[in-house]
């Protein structure tokens, strides 16, 4: 089990060795966002903005105009909320080459409570022209996604978590920007998940199999631009879609899937996520249970969805 | 008459003409900064429109982006594009957007318009210069009302923390903003003490006096280990008597009659 923020910190050091244009910015959270390792290896290319997220993004924009590849790192709730308009006007509008690495996304930041749990960051970032969004599912995918982000020209939002996640992919996996992966084939329903929900989606599919329900599981790690082809194909072949996200059901993965299907191939889409509510303090697993982000709820919801259409 | 004065007056004529053609925009804060921009682009900065991407060039960022006409006029006069384009300001399909867009306008170093953000980006550019050990300098122009934005002080803190002596912030201190004087709307004074307490070298000048402008840039270059703020006392609407120091001329374009009257006055000044 390794948190995607840890994987981010590890790959940053590798990237820093390979490419001298990589600079890393943080807002007094380098131990939590895991940029402290980069800071130690490359002190000259690490900039601590202090507790000032607006200027964190503004400086990153300025650095990008000088040919640098800035990775601006802080908690997701501050990165997208507090600094939104700087990301909009100073990064996305001029299409500058800034990577926003937002850690502690979702409710699994846990005990800090609703003020620190980012459940709307994808919705906010999706609405911005030129912004690309990646939500890696495990260590292997995170390392590849961060590397890919460094090679993409323009703004990229990387959504990372605090909680350790089990491995999904082995080292032979190839992350392709803009492409989802079918992790398990199936014909009765497609479960589309992202981030730390992927392992739960796979377990739910195993349980469904025992009940005679064949569930396809898709990992969508690039939320924008989303893999339309893969989603449409799944809708055509399984008719029913269930989306699972550690994010609000408003504007996140489920909404992105609905945007594709309502235009190209309308089918029933059921969403599991935060139902227009803030989170609260608690242990990550307790919170996931309280808000229905569990194997059991994915299993139940999928079963009901399949049975209702029989 | 010295060439700088002639250029500045010519720039003011461009500003009035392009705003009248656009039918909207911000004359007051564009006219107040004309002398500063002319000096920067024609005397101070190492830039060349024929080699505009040279990594060693000096940079100017207009943080008070609503004063776009003063930047567009200067860039056109400096050869970045044809002056005949200026009257397309704010028109559909024109590259001259209402606020500076770096993807569209040659010579614009940063897209600005949302106040405080250009200054923050300037600090990033200055950091980039330090990391690469380049000798280029960064000049950024802020409005005094703009200083009410919190990001300005975040950026001011960072610039002095990182000892960015390659950065010069110029405050266009005309004292007026949309709803009234700075003191009425939200007191930003005392400016000198504020910037000094944030660790900046501060120089106060008359922003319409070329001798003082020259002296301040020279002094800024000599200061090592900290950034410089030049507080330039200016008159909003400078050069057009009926616009000078009038709050009402912040964001209103001149009518044809007003345009003709302003141009007549500005041309008289050149003769």
UniProtKB/TrEMBL annotation, chain A:
It holds the Pfam family Transketolase_C. Its cofactor is thiamine diphosphate. The lineage of its organism: Bacteria, Bacillati, Bacillota, Negativicutes, Selenomonadales. Residues 2-168 form the Transketolase-like pyrimidine-binding domain. SMART domains: Transket_pyr (SM00861). It comes from Pelosinus fermentans B4. InterPro entries: PDH/Transketolase, THDP-binding, Transketo_C/PFOR_II, Transketolase-like_Pyr-bd, Transketolase_C. Keywords: Thiamine pyrophosphate. Belongs to the transketolase family. PANTHER family: PYRUVATE DEHYDROGENASE E1 COMPONENT, TRANSKETOLASE-LIKE PYRIMIDINE-BINDING DOMAIN-CONTAINING PROTEIN. This is Transketolase central region.
UniProtKB/TrEMBL annotation, chain B:
Keywords: Metal-binding, Thiamine pyrophosphate, Transferase. Its cofactor is thiamine diphosphate. It holds the Pfam family Transketolase_N. InterPro entries: THDP-binding (IPR029061), Transketolase_CS (IPR049557), Transketolase_N (IPR005474). SUPFAM superfamilies: Thiamin diphosphate-binding fold (THDP-binding). Transmembrane segments: none annotated. GO terms for molecular function: metal ion binding; transferase activity. Residues 7-258 form the Transketolase N-terminal domain. It comes from the Bacteria. Belongs to the transketolase family. PANTHER family: TRANSKETOLASE N-TERMINAL SECTION-RELATED. This is Transketolase domain-containing protein. It comes from Pelosinus fermentans B4.
């Amino acid at each position: 089990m390794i948190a995607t923020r840890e994987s981010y910190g590890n790959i940053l050091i590798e990237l820093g060795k390979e490419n001298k244009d990589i600079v890393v910015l943080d807002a007094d959270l380098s131990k939590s966002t895991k940029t402290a390792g980069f800071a130690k290896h490359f002190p000259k290319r690490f900039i601590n903005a202090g507790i000032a997220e607006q200027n964190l993004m503004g400086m990153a924009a300025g650095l990008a105009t000088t040919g640098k590849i800035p990775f601006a790192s802080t908690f997701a709730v501050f990165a997208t909320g507090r600094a939104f308009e700087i990301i909009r006007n100073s990064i996305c509008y001029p299409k500058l080459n800034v990577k926003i690495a937002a850690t502690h996304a979702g409710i699994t930041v846990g005990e800090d409570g609703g003020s620190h749990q980012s459940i709307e960051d994808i919705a906010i970032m999706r609405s911005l022209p030129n912004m690309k969004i990646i939500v890696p599912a495990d260590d292997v995918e995170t390392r590849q996604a961060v590397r890919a982000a460094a090679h993409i020209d323009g703004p990229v939002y990387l959504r990372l978590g605090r909680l350790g996640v089990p491995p999904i992919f082995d080292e032979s996996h190839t992350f392709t920007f803009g492409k989802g992966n079918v992790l398990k084939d199936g014909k009765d329903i497609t479960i589309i998940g992202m981030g730390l929900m992927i392992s739960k989606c796979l377990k739910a599919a195993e349980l469904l199999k025992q009940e005679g329900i064949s569930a396809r599981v898709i990992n969508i790690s690039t939320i924008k631009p989303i893999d339309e082809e893969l989603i449409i194909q799944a809708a055509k072949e399984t008719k029913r879609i269930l989306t699972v996200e550690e994010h609000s059901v408003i504007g996140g993965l489920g909404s992105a899937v609905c945007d594709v299907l309502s235009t190209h191939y309308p089918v029933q889409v059921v969403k599991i996520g935060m139902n227009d509510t803030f989170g609260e303090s608690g242990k990550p697993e307790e919170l996931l249970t309280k808000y229905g982000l569990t194997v059991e709820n994915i299993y139940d919801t999928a079963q009901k969805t399949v049975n209702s259409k029989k | 008459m010295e060439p700088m004065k002639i250029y500045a007056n010519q720039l003011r004529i461009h500003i009035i003409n392009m705003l009248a053609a656009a039918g909207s925009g911000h004359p007051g804060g564009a006219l107040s900064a004309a002398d500063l921009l002319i000096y920067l682009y024609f005397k101070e900065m190492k830039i060349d429109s024929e080699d505009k991407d040279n990594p060693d060039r000096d940079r100017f960022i207009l943080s008070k982006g609503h004063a776009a006409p003063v930047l567009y006029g200067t860039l056109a006069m400096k050869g970045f594009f044809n002056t005949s384009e200026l009257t397309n300001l704010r028109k559909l399909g024109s590259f001259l957007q209402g606020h500076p867009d770096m993807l569209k306008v040659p010579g614009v170093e940063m897209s600005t318009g949302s106040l405080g953000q250009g200054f923050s980006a300037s600090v990033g550019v200055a950091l980039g210069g330090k990391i690469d050990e380049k000798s280029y300098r960064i000049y950024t122009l802020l409005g005094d009302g703009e200083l009410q934005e919190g990001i300005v002080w975040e950026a001011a803190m960072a610039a002095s923390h990182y000892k960015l002596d390659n950065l010069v912030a110029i405050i266009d201190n005309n004292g007026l903003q949309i709803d009234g004087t700075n003191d009425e709307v939200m007191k930003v004074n005392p400016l000198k003490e504020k910037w000094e307490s944030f660790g900046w070298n501060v120089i106060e000048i008359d922003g319409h006096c070329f001798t003082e402008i020259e002296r301040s840039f020279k002094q800024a270059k000599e200061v090592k280990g900290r950034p410089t703020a030049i507080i330039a006392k200016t008159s909003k609407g400078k050069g057009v008597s009926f616009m000078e120091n009038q709050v009402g001329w912040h964001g209103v374009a001149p009518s044809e009659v007003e345009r003709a009257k302003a141009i007549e006055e500005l041309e008289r000044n050149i003769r």
